Amino acid sequence: MDQPLSKIRSGELKLYALEKNMPADEAVSLRRTYIEEETHADLSAVGKYTIPIDRAVTRNIENMIGCIQIPVGVAGPILVKGEYAKNSYWLPLATTEGALVASINRGCGAITKAGGAEVRILRDRMTRAPVFSTESVSHAAETARWAEDNLLLLRVAAEETTKHGELIGLTTYTAGTSVYIRFEFDTKDAMGMNMATIASEAAAHVIEEETGAKLISVSGNMCCDKKPSAINVIEGRGKTISAGVFLSNELVSSVFKTDSANLADVNTRKNLTGSARAASLGFNAQAANVIAAMFIACGQDPAHVVEGSNTITTVDTVEGGVYVSVTLPSLQVGTVGGGTGLATQNACLTMLGVAGGAENPGDNAKAFAEIVAAGVLAGELSLLGALGAQHLGKAHRELGRGEK
User: Fold this and answer.
1) Calpha distance 18→104 (Å, rounded)
2) Active-site residue 396, yes or no?
3) Alpha-carbon span 376 to 291, nearest angstrom
């Protein structure tokens, strides 16, 4: 190993190009040894992993030195009554936050006792929004109108780049001489960002040719990807999905040690009024906790947790109890592509019965989205119950997570 290391130090061998000169495992080990020397850190724990990495170094990561291991727990079973997910599921949750899995587990139990969570996908479309420059506001208006009038022509150009994606709509926006075309795609079982980007670029070139507008960037941030945004709350991105469950007064009392009126009051004053006072884009208790844990376990892009945190939680007092629901305006998930093919992440998707592409393209991703939404509902229920019963601090102390 000394000879390759000396070549790295001299610059003769590039750190990022090691896989071109040796097997992937050797390249990762050599790179890790070099970084250990450079940083004086012991990275031996990072070098212990079980996943085959040949795929990872070509499709998922660059300059790999090893793997970070995150504990994975399960919560459940949770009964889901969706249009695509219709079963009881054990939820895989990757997290280092103590008490989180226990909290979600309690919510799963309550939902199952109540007869299951009903879940519905209201909208399903991935977006990408190129930005164009024009010569004047009149040229900008003409460009926007041309795009609106020629969806079919743009669809042909976009769909020539993909076997599975479909361009299903577009919306135009202008700001002075800037024009934004927010394309909407059905990406089937893929989360679909790469697919949408490549297809949008092809459609954008047609707009350039036909209107004289200049493509500045294939993403103009009206998409709006991996950032908090009102447009994703209102218009949605990925899956817009709702999950709800009726809990009787008796069930609220026995499981959460509080009453229905208190549960509703906590939600109104914390999740709704408190969030509004803070000008938050998310009106929920801990939706991002559940989404992040399931995303990491199941090979999703964890940066999309920011859009999942737009969740709105409602608690309606009804005869005999409460109806609790969550609405996730912008949940981006996929069961093919990205990190879903890595062995450990694929195992978690397999546990849910949604790994890979479905016989009817898109059904696996939709089922996975319904399961995630049901998990978010479980997490919201449990935390609202703990807050209503004044048990949150106690739970953390009992599980050894509180400050001493």
Assistant:
1) 43
2) yes
3) 7
Q: What is the pLDDT of residues 128-181, one digit of tens each?
A: 999 999 999 999 999 999 999 999 999 999 999 998 899 999 999 999 999 999
Return the amino acid letter for 382: S
Residue pair 351/323 in contact by the 8 Å Cβ criterion: no
Considering 25, 26, 36, 97, which one is annotated as catalytic?
Answer: 97
Separation between Cα atoms, residue 394 and residue 396, nearest integer Å: 5
Class (C level, CATH) for 72-124+239-398: alpha beta
Whole-number Å distance between alpha carbons of 227 and 206: 28
Q: Do the strands 131-133 and 86-94 form a parallel or antiparallel pair, or are they unpaired?
A: unpaired
Residue in 371, 368, 365, 369 with CA at minimum distance from that of residue 165: 365
Strand ranges, E, within 177-222: 178-186, 214-217
Residue-wise pLDDT tens digits, 192-222 = 999 999 999 999 999 999 999 999 999 999 9
Q: Which of 36, 164, 301, 391 is catalytic?
A: 301
pTM for this predicted structure: 0.94
Give the whole-angstrom CA distance, residue 315 versus residue 301.
30
Q: Which CATH architecture has domain 130-217?
A: 2-Layer Sandwich (3.30)
In the residue annotation, 97 being an active-site residue is answered as: yes
Domain residues of the chain, as ranges? 22-69, 72-124+239-398, 130-217
